[in-house]
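Explain this one:

_____
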Amino acid sequence: MKSIRNKRRLLGVLYLLAVYLVFQLVWWGWQLYRLQRAYLQHLQSEGNTLPENALRNKIFMIIGEGGVFLILLFIGIWWIKKNVWQDLKRAQKEKNFLLAVTHELKTPIAAIRLNSQTLKNRKLTEEQSQDLCADIITESNRLETLVNNILLATQFEQNTSLGNWQTTDLSLLIEGQIRRFQQLFPERIVNSNIQSNIQLETEETMIVSLLFNLLENANKYSPVSEAISVSLKGSEHLVFLEISDLGVGIPIEERKSVFEKFHRVGNEQTRTQKGTGLGLYIVKEICKAHRAEINISDNTPKGSRFQITFSK
């Protein structure tokens, strides 16, 4: 927070300095003009012959040099402002991320603690115990996903090589992850169209994270009553993975920035969905690690469609 305030003060000082420099430039230009005019009048009074339009040429020289100075000044101010604003936006995103992570960590930990204490201290029926255990598993998976996302983001940031690359049956892997997702979110319908026996050189844990983050994103931003669709198809040289939903969609102007670290769709004051802003950043980095292309388009009749193309 202190860093953000300091950068705002820096911008304020920069603007004041720019105004002062422009004022001084105009003032000194006016003084130079007066001196040049007085000097030329003095020469004429002594009988010297002056070139035609001598005063006008001096004025053009002053204006030209002053104009170059102004252009350089404005370019410098624009460049400094651009970099400071980028730092401000990043600092604000990091602040929001820390607040979100704190909340996202506390919630599953508190739920696990409460359920565990209930199991320990109260006599429950078998059905009640099973329900509490299921809640503990769900919250543990949620916590694991959050921690894995933070670790992955850190590794990508530091360009650390990841995992064990090997030929994977992508069809079986994705089918397994869809089943896992539906266990965590049993109220959500997932329609899948998975072509069998698609082999691809991958890092398995990254593909698991990619798919789960895209499914969680679709789950978060679409009504529970609407289904999520997952499609996997392959050709001789390419593999096509597609996850689509019938949710709020992503505005065209935000489709590039959603892959930035800590970025979240919408306004901080009006946003209601939880999140850290890491999910789609990690998805993009995993695609880059696999030399795959990812694109976002509109779904029909509404929602978003994430299309990933892998090369074999």
Observations:
- The mean pLDDT is 81.
- The longest helix spans residues 54-121.
- The radius of gyration is 31 Å.
- The chain is about 60% helix and 15% strand.
